[in-house]
Amino acid sequence: MPELPEMETCRRLLTEKLVRKVITDVEVNREKSINAQPAQFKSQLINVQITEIQRRAKHLIFKLNSGKNLLLHLMLGGWMYIGSEADNPDRTKQVIISFGDIKLYFIGLRLGYLHLLTDAEAEEALSGLGPEPLDHTLGFPAFHELIGSRRGMLKTTLVNQQFLSGIGNCYSDEICFEAGLLPMKKADELDEDERKILYQSMKGVLTRAIQFGGYMEEPLFKGDAKTGGYNEQCRVYDREGEPCLRCGSPIVKEEISSRKTFYCGNCQR
Ligand SMILES: [Zn+2]
Question: In the chain, where does the domain assigned CATH 1.10.8.50 lie?
């Protein structure tokens, strides 16, 4: 599932390609992916311009000059492609938004959704989310306080969207590895130094992942050299049995609270 760095990469690329463009057509092939009757959804989008694209956690918010918002969550398996009639993946598209000849395809949007909402409705939909890990207002004192109240394991705490928003399976493992902490370690048992290392690792891993375009490799458009650049940089995620880049021990894969988790049992303590 795309996480914060993947969605931030998407946001930046979509902004370059689509902001200030006018929607000329909308095709809905799966009604469950949207929150209105297709005809109504379409009529509220045609001739409307995207003014800005924001990100909150793993969501994107397309701000429209009609005053409404398109709230997107790709969930598991969802992705997007910017192409044309002649250039698009040979896959089922749940929703297609056209900007003249340019088309934005939503693919694999089965668990995910694209909802047309007012500002107040969008705010309500996002209200349960914890702070953004990279928000500059989330300094160490705030993080220290936040994690001190959690009894769960690091893995389950980091992926809990009410605790911090935007981190999922891949980056929770990468952050624990970077910090040298085992993912099954209890959050409230970390000492001051460990909390500091975890905090710095979280900021460092997510910042670097955004710089490299995230780990998911499906390109957003033809010639997209940015998306997925972080895949080669993952140090434990999806590397079961491969040598740890820090100590050489094989990376272990284990289910923690039914989430696949990768770590080094030797140098993570
Ligand atoms: Zn190791």
Answer: 140-264
Confirm whether 2 is a catalytic residue: yes
Query: Which residues place a Cβ less than 5 A from the ion ligand 1?
Result: 244, 246-247, 249, 264, 266-267
Catalytic site includes residue 259: yes
Q: Note the pLDDT of residue 155.
A: 97
What value, to the nearest 5°, has the Cα angle with vertex 268 and ends 214 and 166? 30
Q: Which residues pair with 115 in a beta bridge?
A: 71
Kindly report the number of other CB atoms within 10 A of residue 241's CB atom.
8
Q: Evaluate if residue 148 carries a pLDDT over 90.
A: no
* 149: pLDDT strictly greater than 90: no
Question: Is domain 140-264 annotated with CATH 3.40.570.10?
Answer: no
pLDDT of residue 217: 87
Enter the CATH code of domain 4-125: 3.20.190.10
Query: In the chain, which residues fall in CATH 3.20.190.10?
Result: 4-125
Name the active-site residue from 11, 55, 58, 195. 58
> Is the overall model pTM greater than 0.70, yes or no?
yes
Confidence of residue 232 (pLDDT cuts 50, 70, 90): very high
**DSSP state for residue 150 in the 8-state scheme:** -
- Given a cut of 90, is residue 263 above it in pLDDT? yes
Distance CA 80, CA 245 (A): 33
Active-site residue 192, yes or no? no
CB contact at 8 A, 130 and 138: no
pLDDT tens profile 162-190:
999 999 999 999 999 999 999 999 998 99
| CA angle, 3 then 13 then 127, to 5° | 45
236 C-alpha to center of ligand 1: Å?
A: 9
Catalytic residue among 196, 203, 208, 259: 259
C-alpha to C-alpha distance for 236 and 244, rounded to whole angstroms: 7
